[in-house]
Structures are given as C-alpha cells and as structure tokens.
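Hi support team,

I'm filing this because I wasn't sure whether my run with adenosine-5'-triphosphate finished correctly. The job status page said complete, but I'd like someone to confirm that the output block is well-formed before I use it downstream. Pasting the exact inputs I used:
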Amino acid sequence: MRPAIRFPHPLLQPPTLPDPVTNQTITSVSRESRLFKPSAEFKAQANLGSEAAYKKLYAESVNSPERFWERQAKQFLTWRKPFTQVLQWKPPHAKWFGGGTLNVAENCLDRHLGTARENKAAIIFEGEPGDIRTLTYKQLHREVCKCANALELLGLRKGDRAAIYMPMVPEAAVAMLACARLGVVHTVIFGGFSSEAIKDRINDCGARVVITADGGWRRGKIVELKDSVDRALGATPSVEHVVVLKRTGNAVTMKEGRDLWWDDLMAAAPAVHKARAHASEQPLFILYTSGSTGKPKGVLHTSAGYLLGAAMTTHYVFDIKETDIYWCTADIGWITGHSYVVYGPLSVGATVLMYEGAPNQPEPDRFWEIIDRHGVTVFYTAPTAIRAFMRWGDEFVTRHSLASLRLLGSVGEPINPEAWMWYHKMIGKKRCPIVDTWWQTETGAIMVTPLPGITPTKPGSCTRPFFGVVPKILDENGKPVSRGSGGKLFLTQPWPSMLRTLWGDDARFKEQYWSEVPGLYFAGDGARFDEDGYLWVVGRIDDVLNVSGHRIGTAEVESALVSHPSVAEAAAVGRPDELKGQALVCFVTLKGDQRASDELKEALRAHVAREIGAIARPDSLRFAAALPKTRSGKIMRRILKEIAAGGDVKGDITTLEDFNVVASLQAEE
Ligand code: ATP
Ligand code: MG
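And here is everything the job wrote out:
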C-alpha cells in the first residue's frame, strides 16, 4: 500500500522552474510517510533502550568528543598500555589513542578465554555443499595462534602486507586475525575477482604472501581460486609465498619453493603464540572500495580506532547479546565482511554464522533454511539480495518459520521502500526492527542508522547519526541546504574508525575526500534531511539526474519503479539531450512471471509520473535481462550512463560482475 498522493500535488502547480545554473540543490520527489516504531518488547531488552539515553550520549559525543571517545575506548577495548592522547587532528590526518598499545586479535579472541565465552561458538560455518563446522572461541584462538606462527616462519613481519584471496570459510577469518596478531597488514581480495584485479591489488600494496585456497563452492561449481592466483602472479614481483588451503580438492599446480599447503604449515606450527602489543595507529588492513564509481581506492584502516568503531556499532546497532546467533551475509572481501563478520562481532564475543555459497543453491530458500537450521537471531544483508528474494517469490520464504529472528539489517545501497516493506513483512514478520545502515569502506563502521530499540523507522531512510557522527548536507557552494532539499553529504567531525589515507596515494586521499569543502569529509553521496531530521541517501552525487532544471537523486526514481508490481530492479541515468539538458533513461528488470511489452513500458512511465510527479516521467525506458553490478551487488550507473549515451564503455570495469550484461545491453540498442 502506497500513501495517497496529496493534492494539490506540488509538482502539478504552474511550473516555477528553478534556474538550472544557480539552483544546485537536489529536489526530492519522494512521498514516503510510513513510520514504524520499535515494539515495547524489543525496547525493554535493547542494549540502548531509551531515547533520552541516545540524546545524552549523542550530545556528549559531538560536544565533548574526546571525553566521549576516551570512555568508549576504555569500555570496549582491552589495552596493553593505556593511551595518553585521545585525538591528534591535523586535517585531514587523524591519529587516535596516541601512546596506547593493544593487539586487535587479542581483543577478538584472547580476552574471551578464561571467561564463560571460552567454549561458546565463535564461528558456525556452513559450506555450500552442506558441511557444517563449529569453532569455539578457544578453538579459533588456537587456529589463529598456529597461523600467526606459520606466517612468521614464512618471514612475515609487522608492517608487511599479505593478500588473502579465499572463499567464505573460517580459515579466511583465521588468516585475517593471524595477520592482525602480527601487525601484518592484510588486504582481502574478494574471491570472485579475476586475476587482473588480484594483480592490481597485490602490486598496489606490495604483498609478500598470498593466502588462498584450491577453490571455493559457488552455485554447485568450484571457483578455482589458486588458478586465478597463478595467472596473476606472473606480474607480481613482491610475492614470495603462496599458502594454499585445501577446500574443494580440485587439482592445482604447486610451484616448488613458492607454494605451500595450509595444512602442512599449520601442522608444523606451535599452538601457542605470544601476541605483541601494537601501537593504536598500527596499520591493520588495506581494502579496495567496490568500484561503483571508478577505479577502486586502497583504503587504509589502523588498529584501535577501527576496532572501536566496529565493536561499538556491533553492540549498539545489532544489539548483540550473549545468546545471539548473528549472520551478516557479506563476503569478507568487502568492508561489511571485515567489520561485521570478523572484527566487530568477535570483539564483542558474539557467535557468527558464516555461509560459503550462493543464496539460491540448491534452491532459492537456502538463506531461510540456514536461519531455521541454526536459529539465527540477527540477520544483516543487502538490498540487492532482498530484491532478488522478492523476484524469486514468497513461496520460498513461507515454507520456513524464521521465528528465531529478532533484528534485521540492510547495507550497501539505498533500500527501495518496497523492498524494505517486503523485508519487514516477509522476513521480519512485522516483529523485527530493521536497521538500514549507511556507511562506507572509508568510514570503517556504521555512521548513520536507526538504533533498534529506539528509533522509529521509515522505509528507505537510514534515519539518524550514530555517536560522534555529524552529517551535513551542503549545496555546490558549500552552503547548508534547507530541510527537504538534497545536496552533498559531508561528515564534519573526525571519528575513530575513519580511513587514515589511501595506500600509497595521500594526494588522492586529500583530493577525493577533503577538497570539496576544505576540512570536511566528502562522502560522494547525495542526501537530504526530511522534516524530522531523518537522513535519506538519494544516490551518488555523480549520478544525480538533471530533469528540466531539477536535480533529482537516482534512488527516488528507481524506488518509484520498484514499487510497481511487475518490476524487480531499476536504474535511472541521465542522457545528454539538446532540448532538456538531460533526458531521463531508466533500465528495468522484471519479476520472473512478467513479460516486457510496449504497454508495460507505457504503464511504467505513467506509474512513475503518478508516484512522484510528471517531471520524473522517464523519457525512455528499457527492459533488460539484468543490470550491470559490482561484484558486491551494487548497480553500476556509470556504465549505464555510457550505454544510454550510445558510446563505448570506458573507465575501470575490473569490479564489474558480469561483462555479458553490458554486452547484451549494448546489443539491444
Ligand atoms: P567506490 O567508492 O569504489 O565507487 P562504493 O562506494 O560502492 O565504491 P563501498 O564503500 O562498498 O564502495 O560503498 C559505500 C557506498 O554504498 C556509500 O557511499 C553509499 O553510496 C552506498 N551505501 C551503503 N550503505 C547504504 C545505505 N544504507 N543507504 C544508502 N546508500 C548506502
Ligand atoms: Mg565509495
């Protein structure tokens, strides 16, 4: 049910079109007005259950940030040596918790030993073929100690870089934590990337060791990881060793002297490892961004501040309790997998569920089966997955109970309100709060989000800032925009889990994030505050549409299309147009049982006009079998823009999921 459109409709008024040159704010066309309050039951048990407590903590976090962060850092982290300076801020470079030392792996593992958590499951793993394995905190600690010893034997030392290219198996987390323990900087490369992407990343950071597997399972097939590594390694002079985990048992070529089996190394390694203390600012990992907007950037995160952000948000946003079984479906190759599969949940002693494979293997109900089988309580996934579940059909969901779930999360893209509603009804059974979390590889941890026991939610809005986060929305001239209008999203205060630089390219770091308005962090997204002060991300700033002098974010047009019962996914882009400046071109994929037709095309154009106003009626609408996406599942509008303009696809496409999608879109023209 959509809210009724109010009349007189503002967009049906006689046109007083703003001057396209001076008006640089983004016009909102969304009519979303539904509101969902957390239940009294959830609130009563929440880690933070009162609005007054949120307000008080938030006020302190922005008015006396150093006092606030000092207390949080003492509460959430275990220090070897206490820090003496909370923040040294020389914009855009921040140093947090100076003088202090700690060990990130110790914070995720050792400190839970000798407590009631010791024999609790740290990781419950389910492989795609159905194999299930549980590692308690004690067992995981042992594996990490062995792995750290093994990596040390290979000559890895603090500050060296190691690349991890693995399937979603517990050993991937073991490798990350072993690096963290040693102060070796890891760079995890998503297991779906090609040799080209592996080569670029290894060379950019100068990795000495690559940790990989023979293969991983995906949709019933083996993804031959070692083979991809081999093809990358011809052109990577920094690599001395490759460690290979046996997962799928396919034949691999092992290069004498260079390649070693994980099992052999682990069998020979002592199970005791004394962790050294590292400085707060010890680099922890480099992670390349998704590449939605261009060439991936090597984001550098350091130890204490990053871990604090991950731990604190896990505690407050996912409301983690000792008894939770927490499942974040992200691959460890993405920041979400770093912060919310590994570092955040393990640092707070949660039980993490890890699943290796595809959501539709063997059937499109695998996720729901997993939730019921393991009693998952907190579930965190992405809009792209939710839209796929919607497309596959409700019957795959309704054959499972999902009664164990108590909290749901979303991340990665703006969630279309209709996808939110489906998630709320079908998965959350109207009982589970949804936390729509806005953040980035660069921010390290969740920045804008509802708190599940407190914040009333609106479908499509990530609502309010987390502690210490001060979002500002400014126009082209750096002036605040009025409520209801969109502009560029900035963060104005430094925060502990912020990126420290781009690896090897501090100039690009300054240029990319800090030069738009000097001293403020530019997120690259367009957003608006509504009348309640809720934040809505309206799309990437580079993708903002210019329709008859109005600048409109992509998310609102796309959400209007997705609210039509025939539509599964939509992407809106601008095409240069002599008359209008830009014509609005929409690419649409349909739900399984729907057929493309000229009538449907007209119906969809009319639907958009009805939902959000005549100015947003698409000039052209194209049906597509699939949309181009990054391998993390985000729509790549920059590619669609090029296709809409009729030109070649230029720019970096190493993170594109499937080139065939682009080829067929071009062929259809
Ligand atoms: P690149 O920076 O290389 O173009 P990317 O921005 O997709 O890639 P990530 O760091 O993985 O790389 O994604 C962060 C971006 O994802 C945000 O800037 C925002 O555009 C989008 N995003 C993430 N979560 C949300 C959310 N809850 N609501 C709206 N947008 C979101
Ligand atoms: Mg980005």
